Amino acid sequence: QRDFLTYDGTRFTVTAFSGWIKGVPHNGFKVEVSKGIILHLVDEVSSWLPGDRIVVASTDYSMHQAEEFNLLPCPECKSNQVKIDGSPLYLHIGEVIDGVDMRAEVGLLTRNILIQGEMEDSCYGQNQCQFFSFDTFGGHIKILRNFSSVHMSGVELKNMGQQILGSYPVHFHLAEDVDERGGYERPTYLDNLAIHHCFSRCVAIHGTHGLLVKDTIGYDTLGHCFFLEDGTEQRNTFYHNLGLLTRSGTILPSDRSEAMCLAIRSHVYGNYVPVPSTDCMAVSTFWIANPNNNLIENAAAGAQDVGIWYIFHRVPTGQSEGQYPEGHAEHTPLGVFYNNRVHSNFKAGLFIGKGVKTTRASAEDPREYLTVDNARFHPHQDADPEKPRVPAVIDGLIAFKNNDHGAWARGGDIIFRNSGDGTFPTDEGSSLEVTRSIFVGESSNFGSQGGQNSYWGKGANGEYRTLPRNKTFPIRGFQIYDGPVRMAKCTFKKFIPTVDRYSSAIGFFMKNSWQISPQNNVSQILMEKSVGLKVFFGRSGQWFGSNDNDGDKMSIFHDLDGSVTGYPDTFIGRADNYLLRHPGCLTVPRWNGVMCTGKFAQLYIQARRPENLTLSIARAAYHSHPLRLQGVNRGAPYQQYQPVVMLEQAYVIQWDGRAPEDIILYPINFNRGDWLCVALCYPRESVFQVVADIYQRRTGTVHSVKHYLAAPSRASALSRTGERLFYFDRASGYLFVHLQAHEARKGHSYCSQQGCERIKIMAHMYPGDSWSCGPNPFPERPAAAQRPVSRHPAGLCRACGAPQLAITSTPSVKYIRIQIQSLSRVDVQNHLTSAFIKVCCVLLRLKW
């Protein structure tokens, strides 16, 4: 009797027998492994033929676990099966695991038409041979404007591209509109291409709009693979493309690895030495320089740095210079982003943020032109910041096994859904939102050693697995940074700390010197039983450093409904932050956190002359527990400090030197009528000018200027009568100011609808005058009574968590949750038998 078993894509011949072996009676099984392994694919692949070559993507942290195979004849295969020659070296997942579709992508590299470069055996001449041992001078196809038609389909491109600007496998060069808008009845497209083992990008779209790129593979290439060049390119659509094994190249700073970045200095100013981590090291499979492009059902399955990067040119660059006004790209609404996959990237799966340097190297800024620079995404209607915001929607992102971040976004409005700002943003009121998503800490995708995976160690369940970055690297599901950010209807699972590393569902950006907004909030969150640590504020040590930067100390978020803490309308901050605390707070030592009720906002402080002082701020009720802030921009014209404060309280501000001559106080996130009392330490003989105004940051204009008058007493200056008064107590050295918001604030805006209210304090100080002050000029009194954290925890939230049970790249497929439970001791004693559940057919990702 013979049976056949298909298991994990491997065909085994199993023979059951009863008989004699060498004269000895024996019952058993003989296993004969046939040549070749059968892969089960989602789609029909009968057009794939023996002798064709395929690539199976990595499903682990290293992109180098992608593997190539030749196809063998397989008369027994079904229409969705192929047989490969050889055995995989690595595990390639073929399942939806823990609710996330982690199936490996499988791409066909063979096409009927082959265009390839003729290559030498090794690198030669002026072809950057210090970085490449192989020949990188391949062929290239350049398409210029005013063509009759271009439709490329079913073509294999191999050994194409050069490490020279403008020489790429397929290059649309300043072709302008190539769809109906350009007069083409049959819009231009690239369809079903296989671009592999190439030496400079895959598809370069330069000054070209309306191009369709679909069903195309970019595999084992140098530099940004699917590449938008100048920041002007719009309305292009990338549909169902696969990019993997995207390596570093030399052409642009953003293409370069650390070694390339340090060595290539021909276009910097003087003796400037590039800083790889900030100037370079950004090579990406999809490099999207203008947000008005469509990405639908693509897979970025392994890049040296990032899978999909939306980057913003402050002005158009290169040959497109001058075509758009300044800031156009960063204010342009996002095109369609739907159902894309990002995994096995060394830095991040998806990155939204940063820009490129748009000026040449100079003494003022010696970095090379097009070096990675800072920028934020602030989409508005018609790319006009004076018009309403148009939220950017990231719909259906699957991100797994990326070493640093699954997704990173700064700016706003940006909304993530159905998916697994700065010190004081230029665009007040922008926000980020994550909804209806699943976060998994340590999935059942254990991975496999090798392929440049550096770390192998025990997971939380005791089994060995691959690990990101380092065996001790902290795992954080939702990392709070800047703000305001909000999260709703999300599910967390499998965040369990170990003796080697922290793992928390909610965490914070590490070594953070930036501000964090108290408007950050969460609601309708489901923490499954497998979550061992819901929140963690960090502790000093590896990765967290001293955990003493300004942003580290000010970490905070608001649990609106109690779905995380169990207590509704509760703010969670770091345990040692006495700017937040009051007697009604609850300390959570395991989180290094504290839960408090109250009203919180930010006091944004700018200081000039000097700009390098350390600020000490204490709430008067806890004056013996000051927070010391270093500021965020040492050497900037204005130093910036951003403490989160409890409203309707008194605060004491001192410095580690003589006070700055100019100080500006902004009440940030204050609603009309919210107030603080502030005492600032100055030398005893100081003379002051105090002015209130409203600053429109968009236009740089100031209005509603009002001068403060000197008050006869501290009590009169701090009274809430609406008069603008200050009082300087020469005996103590403290200047007393009542800070109150008079204008209405809307939505997530940091400032009022009229602009940013502020108080400017200009002090004339004499040399040699003593500047030390006592610890607390306010009357000693106990901490103000605040509503205590509710002693009645929130009830069970039945509507919490992501509504989907599986996040999948084939959304039409429905999944159900199955729980398998072994028999208990009581069941065995009662002679119950177990149920047997067989799950058949390991699936690999649909074909490319």
TrEMBL record:
<dbReference type="InterPro" id="IPR011050">
    <property type="entry name" value="Pectin_lyase_fold/virulence"/>
</dbReference>
<feature type="domain" description="CEMIP beta-helix">
    <location>
        <begin position="136"/>
        <end position="350"/>
    </location>
</feature>
<dbReference type="InterPro" id="IPR055401">
    <property type="entry name" value="CEMIP_beta-hel_dom"/>
</dbReference>
<dbReference type="InterPro" id="IPR052252">
    <property type="entry name" value="CEMIP/CEMIP2"/>
</dbReference>
<dbReference type="Pfam" id="PF24606">
    <property type="entry name" value="CEMIP_beta-hel"/>
</dbReference>
<dbReference type="Pfam" id="PF24605">
    <property type="entry name" value="CEMIP_X"/>
</dbReference>
<protein>
    <recommendedName>
        <fullName>Transmembrane protein 2</fullName>
    </recommendedName>
</protein>
<feature type="domain" description="CEMIP">
    <location>
        <begin position="600"/>
        <end position="774"/>
    </location>
</feature>
<dbReference type="InterPro" id="IPR055400">
    <property type="entry name" value="CEMIP_X"/>
</dbReference>
